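Structural prep section.
Before we set up the soaks we want a predicted structure of the protein with zinc ion in place, mainly to decide which crystallisation condition to try first. Input record follows.
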Amino acid sequence: MPVHGFHTRTASHREIVDITNRVQQAVGEANCAEGLVCVTASHCTCTVYVNENESSLVADTLELISKLTSDRSWRHDRIDDNAAAHLAASVLGNSVCLPISGGQIELGTWQRIMLVELDGPRDRRVTVTVIPG
Ligand code: ZN
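Run finished without errors. Recording the tokens verbatim:
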């Protein structure tokens, strides 16, 4: 099972980054025509999801994350003051699995693979596991 991946450096405390092209590049390196690709953010305070990369929707997504997790005193904050980031990552999930057809990730017209930084800026590793089939 070929495992590829890449590092990315986020720039903000919270941000959403379109990683679709880099994932497609990793799929190309795996030389897989048909199968599945699993994209995993290998962190507790960073995640991935699939949706449209439209600027106001991205802003709305960040606002939703803030509303879900902010203005609370969380227990984990006593340890390293980033409970909101952990909780948001848990709610969003840390991976997505998508079909590959003709060597391309099958996405809908407006779908993109988005990385969510929840406690940056940091260096982040994205693991791309390609399963031929
Ligand atoms: Zn923590």
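Observations: The helical segments are 20-30, 55-69, 77-80, 83-92.
Flagged for discussion at group meeting.
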